[in-house]
Design a protein that fits this description.
It is a single chain. By secondary structure, the chain is an alpha+beta fold. It has one domain. It is built from 2 helices and 3 strands. A 3-stranded mixed β-sheet has the order 2-1-3, with no helix packed on it. Strand 1 and strand 2 form a beta hairpin. It is flat, with a radius of gyration of 14 Å.
Length: about 80
């Protein structure tokens, strides 16, 4: 659904936020590249809306209506 990136100046990190619609059908969450990936979290759509208020249409509405989201470079934060 979306890719966003930002430079977190407080932590001197370049982060990429990948947001997609999915359904968990089994298995276990695992970070196989800990030197590259610091955190992975599956959340329901309502919590995702809380985490990402910058989507004015609301992530739930975007997913429901299959609206295309453009790439955003959030810059330094």
């Amino acid at each position: 659904m979306a890719i966003n990136e930002a430079i977190l100046t407080k932590h001197d990190e370049h982060v990429v936020f990948i947001t997609f619609r999915a359904e968990i059908t089994g298995g276990q969450q695992e970070i196989t590249r800990p030197s590259e990936i610091s955190h992975v979290e599956w959340v329901d759509i309502d919590r995702a809306d809380e985490y990402m208020p910058y989507y004015q249409e609301g992530l739930k509405n975007i997913a429901k209506n299959e609206i295309e989201i453009k790439y955003f470079n959030e810059g330094k934060v």
